[in-house]
Design goal:
TIM Barrel, isomerase, about 425 residues, 8-stranded parallel beta barrel, alpha/beta, Xyl_isomerase-like_sf, 2 domains, EC 5.3.1.5, 16 helices
Length: about 425
Amino acid sequence: MTTGFFDGIAPVTFKGPETDDPLAFRHYDPDETVMGKRMEDHLRFAVAWWHSFAWEGGDPFGGQTFERPWYPQDSMDAARRKADAAFEMFEILGQPFFCWHDVDLRPDQGNFADNLATLNEITDYIADRMKTARTRCLWGTANMFSHRRWMAGAATNPDPDVFAFSAATVKSCLDATHKLGGSNYVLWGGREGYETLLNTDMGRELDHMGRFLAMVVDYKHKIGFKGQILVEPKPQEPSKHQYDYDAATCIGFLRKYGLENEVKLNLEQGHAILAGHSFEHELAVAASEGMLGSIDMNRNDYQSGWDTDQFPNNVPEVALAYYHVLKAGGFTQGGTNFDAKLRRQSLDAEDLIAAHVGGMDTCARGLKAAAAMIEDGGLEDALRDRYRDWDTDAAKSMLHSDLGAIAQRVLDENIAPEPRSGRQERLENYVNRFV
């Protein structure tokens, strides 16, 4: 069924950097080979169902600004119209993947039995649409933060009935992701944190969260789901103290509960900024531990202390992000999900297409710059040069020695090291040659 929302918008094609067509790709050519692999297969783009179709344009000071053919989102007829619009947009953009929360797909019924029935109904409908579409499911997840039942958390809630409702909800969403052939399942802990220690037993809540995640892993294996289980770091959004604050915090949590070989990370650029990090920092932390699974690509407004979820347009930032993705071996089951939304004044269907076109082009330019830096080898040469003395036999043996022996060597050899330049500005200039 055609919704009419995208009428008059032709499929987006690659026209090259000289085009002035705002609805054409200038840099993203899905068939271009980069480091021996198609660009589409490197980037594995995904549309976020929530921001693209479920978000109504509200903000903390005002309500809905968008008008869509599937509003109000309170019936299964509307859910089907929304799915039809989604597949129309996927075809226009040539999108290989999509991502979703359960409440993006169907209205919340207020009780689990009806939520389950409507989720099964709409995912059957989506599965049927996928039979004639090229777009696949990158990942699914459960929204366990919007409804008032989640105000004190899901897995960390002090009420065991909420824990039970959460477990049932995740089971239903993992089943649906499995049915849709998803490559990953994400646990997005929007309220897994606390507002005050006056009413919080932190140790108990962390134990419950660890046990909950172990149950998810066990159920994944029980049903034969071959996708990755991912957790997403979420600083300050909305709890002041989120248990899943950043990549390092999540890795420590996974190791504490013995899940480091079962769960990887889905990292978002905006969340990295909220945690006081750069995106490449979070990616490097995860990659160093073999836990880089997938990414949400967006950007924040640097004058705002909130996650503004804007489409990426900063090529140098994106290039450094993909540099670490490529160094880690690239995506296998993960991909690049546009967890980004229109500005609430961008009302038209063309705005939604243009936003994705711009984001995809930015990522394509970043990917090519990252690949060029890797192929040139300048950053790796600089790293080897900076740490070259650690490759000597004396330095290697020191790591297997003890303080007393090392101190004696310093005395015997009269070691008095002078500082060496880190050459940061030269390396920043080097990166600018490629972006």
